[in-house]
Structure formats: structure tokens, C-alpha cells
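Appendix C: a fully annotated inverse folding record. The material below is reproduced so that readers can follow the format used throughout the book. The structure is listed first as C-alpha cells, followed by the designed sequence.
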């Protein structure tokens, strides 16, 4: 049958088939392009929504951060106050503990005439005292007991003399010693 068709008709049929194939390819390409375009549009839409959501989250966090800025400022002020208090507490010395320390070192038969403690005495300045004792043996025991007491250092017995300043304690001794800050905390 093909042989019966003229050559021009055959060319027309071949061109029609080729046009049909080209039309199909064009239609498939248009469908692929439309699909790609819809994917791109959907991606753009999702990215825009994500960006908007992230910006809102950042704004909310900034609002919360400004609310906590006051708390952070109070916290740093409290921290500074605590470090100042710690510094003061490290420099503090309990006078009552110093008196108990001296009282424990004092042997029986001895009394202190006058004891004047100042803050400088806990920083290495020696304390000068006059001690009255019942005998010269007790006066020498005072120096030994003070020297062997932890927290009392640089114990010096300056002089021992007979003195009736306090009744029942005829011997007086002048002495100096240093009180350790660590011993009276």
C-alpha cells in the first residue's frame, strides 16, 4: 500500500508523525517545566514562612533577653557584693576568740593587768601586756605557755620585777606577743 501513495504524500505522513512526536515532547517538556516551577514556588513559599517564623522567634528572644537583662544586672551586683563581703570576712578577726586564746595560755596564778586589742594586732603588730603573777616561777611559765600556744607567736618576756600593784600577785612581767589572724577566725 505504501507503494501506491505518491512520494509527496509519504513525506507529508512522515512530517505529520515527526510533528506529533515533537508535539508530545513539547507537551512533556511543558509539564516538566510547570512541575519544576511549582516545586520552586513551593520551596520559595516554605523558605519565606521559615524566615518569618525565625524573625519572630528572634524578636521574642530579644524581648525575653531585655527582660532578663535587669536580672543579670542584679546578679552581677549581688556577685560583687558577695565578693566584697568575702573580702571583709577574710579580714575579720573575732576578738572573743583572741581573748579565749590568751586566757587558755595564761597559767593559774597569773592575771593580766590590762589588755588592749586593735585591728592592727591581727596584722602582725605585737600586743604589749603587763601580767601579774603569784611567783617568779609562774612568770616564767607565762612565757613558756604563750610560746607553746598555737596562734601566739613572737612571745618576748621584756622584764620581770617585784611589784605590789595587785594584792596577792607580787611579781609583774612586761611581755609582747603577736596574734595570728588564722587562729582567731
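Designed amino acids, in order:
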Amino acid at each position: 500500500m505504501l507503494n501506491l501513495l505518491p512520494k509527496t504524500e509519504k513525506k507529508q505522513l512522515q512530517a505529520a508523525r515527526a510533528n506529533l512526536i515533537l508535539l508530545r515532547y513539547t507537551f512533556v517538556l511543558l509539564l516538566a517545566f510547570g512541575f519544576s516551577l511549582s516545586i520552586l514556588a513551593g520551596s520559595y513559599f516554605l523558605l519565606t514562612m521559615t524566615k518569618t517564623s525565625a524573625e519572630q522567634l528572634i524578636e521574642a528572644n530579644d524581648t525575653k533577653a531585655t527582660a532578663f537583662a535587669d536580672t543579670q544586672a542584679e546578679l552581677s551586683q549581688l556577685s560583687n557584693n558577695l565578693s566584697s563581703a568575702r573580702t571583709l570576712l577574710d579580714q575579720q578577726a573575732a576578738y572573743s576568740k583572741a581573748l579565749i586564746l590568751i586566757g587558755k595560755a595564761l597559767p593559774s596564778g597569773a592575771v593580766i593587768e590590762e589588755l588592749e586589742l586593735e585591728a592592727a594586732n591581727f596584722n602582725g603588730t605585737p600586743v604589749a601586756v603587763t601580767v601579774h603573777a603569784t611567783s617568779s616561777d609562774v612568770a616564767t611559765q607565762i612565757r613558756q605557755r604563750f610560746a607553746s600556744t598555737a596562734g601566739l607567736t613572737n612571745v618576748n618576756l621584756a622584764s620581770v620585777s617585784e611589784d605590789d600593784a595587785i594584792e596577792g600577785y607580787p611579781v609583774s612581767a612586761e611581755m609582747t606577743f603577736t596574734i595570728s589572724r588564722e587562729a582567731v577566725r
